[in-house]
Amino acid sequence: METKEIIRAVCSLMSINGYEYAESDKLCALVSPYFDVVERDSVGNHIFIKRSKKKNAKKLFIDTHFDEIGLMVKGITNEGFLRVCSVGGVDARLLPCAEVTVYGKGKTLPGVALDKPGCIRKDDERGKLTPVTDILVDVGLDKTEVSKYVDIGTPVGFAPFYGELGDGYYFGKALDDKLCSAAVIKAVEMLDPEKLAYDLYFSMSCREEVGHRAVSAAAYRIEPDAAIVLDVTFGLAPEGKKGSDMKMGGGAVISLSVILDKTLTDNIIAVAKENEIPYQICLEGVGTGTHADDVAFVGRGIPTALLGIPIYFMHTPVETTLLDDVDSTAKLVAECLCKEGLI
Amino acid sequence: MAEIEYLRKFMMAQGVSGDEGEIADLIAKEIAPYVDEVYKDAMGSLIAHKKGRPGAKKLMFAAHMDEIGFMVNYITDEGYLRVSKMGGINFTAASFSHVVFKNGMRGVLVPEARTAVQNYSPEKVYVDIGAKNKKDAEKRVKIGDTCSVVSGLYHLAGSRVCGRPIDNRIGCYMLYEVAKRLEKCENDTYFVFTCQEEVGVRGAKTSAYAINPDYGCAVDIGGSGDVINAAPFAVVLGEGPAIKVKDGMVICHRDVVDLMKKIAEDKKIKYQLEILESGGTDTCMLQQARGGCKAGAVSVPTRYGHSEVETIDMKDVEGGIEIMKGMCETVLA
Amino acid sequence: MKLHGLELIRALSDISAPSGCEGRVADFIIGQIGGDAKTQIDRVGNVIATIPATADAPKTMICAHMDEPGFIVKDVDGDGKVWFKSFGGVPSERMSGRRGVINGDVFCIFSAKPIHVLSGDERTKPTPMDKIYAEIGAKDKDSAAAKVKVGDYGTLAPSFCGIGKYVKGKALGSRASCAALIETIRSVAASDKKHGEIVFAFTTRGEVGNMGAEVASFVASPERAIIVDGIQAYDTPDVPDELKISTLGGGAVISGIDAKTIFAPARVDEAVKCAEENGIKYQYVVRQSQVGEGAVVQRSLGGCECIGISIPTRYKKSASEMISPADYEAVCALIGKLI
């Protein structure tokens, strides 16, 4: 499949925190053909396993998080509007009049999020964003009709719109972090199974956006010999942090941090150089703010490296990536998987 | 001399902006004997035309006949009325007042309980007509009905009177008097009683366009600099009508200002010159109609505008009538 | 192909045609009118469709503005980011992080400052409009300059869709009004009912001061006018009834006044009576909520008798303006009966 098709297929699945298994069948249908086995653990992670043809191959754990930020219904008004709360850090800047999708029982309902109308704002609310907790969702239906499909706890996400932009950019919702999932799928699709050097445990983990709650369980159970975590990172935009945000088009991001395994990281850099894959270094210091922080010290400890892909407009409905960077990252992952002596 | 009973008659007819039917009909009836034709335009302004000599210049007088008031926009379950303001309402002045509807029904305009005076606003006041509930109210009033604070005219000391809506029935009355007293009509003269002035000088725009005058003269209330804590302002009550030099929307034509001054001096009428920093009257619309006309205005010095105790001196009114009469009797070139 | 009803509304909503750059929607409207009326584009871009009189009755102008809020490109910077000046009143919080379109076919995204550099204060306030740029996905300045240049126009991206009983899209209130005019032209052309001359004006610059309507009424000089537009509906939870203005599904709005117009009382009464006699659902609204084209049309030249008939619209000035198809039908029916 083309990179953008994989991105769209994976990212448009509904996987709001707590509902990572809601579209599990669709995910498995999409990803399983490239793997031997899929396991769904008790906390919500999907683990896709592909075994090496080599004897006594080491276990390599690759993690991307599959959950996405969203909203959850906390009540239905008499007019049939939904009151919602935030699941993961939904940005209040994006909600006024935003197009959303309500994932109701047996039916998805398109809706519009609305902030507090100006006519009922108090003086100290003027010129300010309405907190997510006061946001309403309009699905254009009466309460009786809405109640057939929607209940307390029904997830609500930004409506999925995907598209190409300009010179090879691609945008849509929930690229964080399913874009990296797509890159790994692409990597597995492109590699020669005969050359796979490790037993690959590819985890599409859950509950990252609500506090990194689930990945440790997967890493602990699998006890891999090494781990590579992939997560999206900030592409340098005009108002961004010069010198620390990554360059769009600069290739795969390889992170340096004191919590990461230096040998593994150096080996990955060597693979990139050897195969002339564009890459850029991100200096994280200590904590990385990603699942790498959790995986590295699980159980007896797991040597961990961190890769990433830069995106614009993180946590908006229009997260934007450059497809070249995704392809570079996929290539790098594929080459690493086939590289003897990487771990 | 100006007749207060006629003025009172003009003040007692209702005519909230956009709903000027009653006052227009009254003026039409009163002025008809003194002019050649009387008609209304599409906006609702009343035009009284007195023909001049063949080839005479067109002179248009404008006095707005509308008054500030309220329009019902919602009836609450309790039977109270929410209202939109029609014109520049001073809500502090209007609160706790009697209001009256066209059919004579009374109500009281009051602020919501526990509202600080400085917060009185259209959203914070309502009209209580004494209805028991919404259904009861709906029998008596409907959305879109207008009402205004109860009219009245009272004598104060000497030649001073107070009441509402002196703004601008005084102007209407003055034009009526000019038409009545006129012996020699040198110009093709239009007495226009404009609508919707209080909501943004709307009616004068279309009537000035239709008439396309060569000279224009508005008459309206002005301000007064002789009240306690007034901003510096040279016009005071009782020192004669004010000849407008400028306001916030118009700079009057020199020829008109000079003509008015000359008439006043010839007739030995006391006058004052008015320079307003802000605010506007129909004058600006007269000036800008089509290719423009030479426009000026007579202002009646007034204290406490847009309240129910607007106060004027009838001597100033008499002077204003005579100046405008003088304009009619001057051959304009 | 001639479109009808929701298909027509969808097509109109999805066209990108901001104030001052209405050509695309003008062409579409002329195509849809076809031979049902004599059409021309006047000197300020208004589409004027005229149906001659078949009876001695007052000349009527029916007016809806066809433009929409948008922006104009002011700079393409060294990184290929497109900076713009917006107009027409879409608040910045309804643009930031959303999709847009420049020149009708170059898609863009309105930037949202990265969350990791937001100050505490910035998290609670909308992004100022001048801090938002359009990302067109250009690798560098040259690539951007090949697609977009200073002075180009853009709008929010098309996004028409159904929401429950309703439909939503950008510029929906005003474009549905245009659709109502188009369908009225067709029904007048197909009917043998007698009427005076009717001028349908699809006006420009309605979002920035109604200059198009000013010229249209100057030229047409009608005796009567009907202004058709979307009107705010605040019929959402937590809003007291007296502040709702209009209600979706409540029928065609007949306005007594707007912020700058007192509509002709006799004609308003006539419209109310007409709705009642024909069983057309209507709501009578007296609110100084918005400035419509009535202000300029009513007071053009010697003035005309003007009324306002509107489609209740939620979330005006957003990509998610929402209307009820039933209200649209009511507006079409009422206009049809009035002329």
Helix and strand topology:
The complex is a heterotrimer of chains A (343), B (333) and C (339).
Chain A: H1 3-11, H2 24-31, E1 37-40, E2 46-50, E3 59-65, E4 70-76, E5 82-87, E6 99-104, E7 107-114, E8 136-138, H3 143-149, E9 155-158, E10 163-165, E11 169-172, H4 175-190, E12 199-205, H5 215-222, E13 226-234, E14 252-257, H6 262-274, E15 279-285, H7 292-295, E16 304-312, E17 319-322, H8 323-337
Parallel strand pairs in A: 3-12, 3-13, 13-16, 14-15
Antiparallel strand pairs in A: 1-2, 2-12, 4-5, 4-9, 5-8, 6-7, 6-9, 7-8, 10-11, 11-17, 14-16, 16-17
Chain B: H1 4-12, H2 21-31, E1 37-40, E2 46-50, E3 58-64, E4 69-75, E5 81-86, H3 91-94, E6 97-101, E7 106-111, E8 125-128, H4 134-140, E9 146-149, E10 152-155, E11 160-164, H5 166-181, E12 188-194, H6 203-211, E13 215-221, E14 242-246, H7 254-267, E15 272-275, H8 283-288, E16 294-300, E17 310-313, H9 314-329
Chain C: H1 5-14, H2 23-33, E1 38-41, E2 47-51, E3 60-65, E4 70-76, E5 82-87, E6 99-102, E7 106-110, H3 120-124, E8 133-135, H4 141-147, E9 153-156, E10 161-163, E11 166-169, H5 172-190, E12 198-203, H6 211-220, E13 224-232, E14 252-258, E15 261-262, H7 265-277, E16 282-286, H8 294-298, E17 305-313, E18 321-323, H9 325-338
Parallel strand pairs in C: 3-12, 3-13, 13-17, 14-16
Antiparallel strand pairs in C: 1-2, 2-12, 4-5, 4-9, 5-8, 6-7, 6-9, 7-8, 10-11, 11-18, 14-15, 14-17
Helix pairs in contact in C: 1-5, 5-9
